[in-house]
Amino acid sequence: MSLSQEKLMQIVLEPRVTEKSTLVGEKYNQFVFKVLKSATKPEIKNAVELLFKVEVESVQTTNVKGKKKIFKREPGKRPDWKKAYVKLKPGFDIDFVGA
Predict the structure, then answer these.
(1) Which of 16, 51, 66, 94 could be a cystine partner for 32, CB 3.0 to 4.6 Å?
(2) Where are the beta strands (DSSP E) in 16-55?
């Protein structure tokens, strides 16, 4: 495995399976992932194609600001993170459950 493939394997941190991401997935054939903050759209595309053996049509990203919270009367903040909406080409699908 080359160095670039090792870097690509670390870009996608986790799939975001929420009510909103499920609706987006059913309606637009998109999947939502938490990715490295420094990741670019071409890197995310290549990483998803490498990890899941699918073809990606487009990638949209958004930076999510961490919420301000109070922990034991002390103010704190959750970390900021980056979300990627990945649209697959027709005929491709990602199965997170695995049968």
Answers:
(1) 16
(2) 30-35
